[in-house]
Nitroreductase family deazaflavin-dependent oxidoreductase
Amino acid sequence: MALTGTYAPSAAEWVRNQVADYEASDGEKAGTLPGTSYPIVVITSVGAKSGDLRKNPVMRVERDGSYLAVASKGGAPEDPAWADNFRQHPEVDLQDKAEKHTYRVRELSGEERADWWEHAVATWSTYAEYQTKTDREIPLFLLERA
């Protein structure tokens, strides 16, 4: 794992607990988001404002060794904070069960975004519902091994 620095746990208790359980069990415990049965990964990024390490559980959307981070925030009107982290610091660490690697991040647009959006919705259909709840286009971030 390439990122170093001070870890600043989330202000949200469920996020802190989810990350701690996931990391302690190599993804075997608490491997789903609350209220779902779909698997997650944990992404560590550098805070855009603080510079501290931030860890977030996100739905596991993978294809051919690349991962997609869907900045849906459940259809909220604003992006999740980690989206700005990715934009400012496009290198992250990702843990998928016991596997941990460093990834380069890029925000998708155009046909590539459309292709990955289709894959995301096929993987987790709730993303389509989230898009109907917001006027913003939900950002998609592709994570490719560094």
Observations:
- Residues 75 and 129 are 8 Å apart (CA to CA).
